[in-house]
Design brief:
Length: about 140
C-alpha cells in the first residue's frame, strides 16, 4: 500500500524527447470474484471466520465440519470502517506480486492491427515510445 501511495503522490520519472516527465499512477477500481475479493481485502473467504464485509462478527458454525457458517444479526457487532478495510488491504497487498502479474498479462497480449508495437515489460517503461504508453493506457 505504501508503494501505491508513493506512485500516486510522487509518481515515476521517465525520459522523453522533451525531457523528464513525471507519471502519477492511481488505482481506481479492482474487479474480482469472491475468492479474489477476500485475498485483495485481506479477509477470510465468504465462509470463514470474520468473513462478513460489514462487521467483524465471527459467525456460528453449523455442524461439526466447519464448512457451513451463518451470521445472525448482532446489534453489538464491531463494524468495519473505511480505515479498517484500508488497513486490511494494506496488510494483504504485495505490490511486487501485483506488478509481476500485470507484467505477465501485458506480455501475453496479442495486439490488434491498430496497435503498432507489441507490448514490452513494465520494467522497461522508461524506454517505452509514446505509442506504447498510449496503447497501455487505453487498452
Amino acid at each position: 500500500m505504501d508503494q501505491l501511495t508513493k506512485l500516486s503522490t510522487e509518481g515515476k520519472l521517465y525520459e522523453t524527447a522533451q525531457g523528464l516527465k513525471r507519471c502519477r499512477i492511481r488505482l481506481a477500481l479492482v474487479s474480482c470474484d469472491l475468492p479474489a475479493r477476500a485475498m485483495v481485502a485481506g479477509m477470510k473467504q465468504h465462509n470463514g471466520k470474520c468473513a462478513c464485509l460489514y462487521c467483524y462478527h465471527p459467525g456460528i458454525n453449523v455442524g461439526d465440519d466447519y464448512l457451513h457458517r451463518y451470521w445472525p444479526y448482532d446489534r453489538n457487532a464491531v463494524l468495519r470502517s473505511h480505515d479498517s478495510v484500508k488497513a486490511d488491504v494494506a496488510n494483504a497487498v504485495h505490490l511486487d506480486a501485483l506488478l509481476a502479474f500485470l507484467d505477465m498479462r501485458l506480455l501475453s497480449i496479442s495486439p490488434t492491427d491498430i496497435i503498432n508495437r507489441t507490448p514490452r515489460s513494465l520494467k522497461e517503461y522508461s524506454t517505452w515510445k509514446a505509442n506504447e504508453m498510449r496503447s497501455w493506457l487505453f487498452y
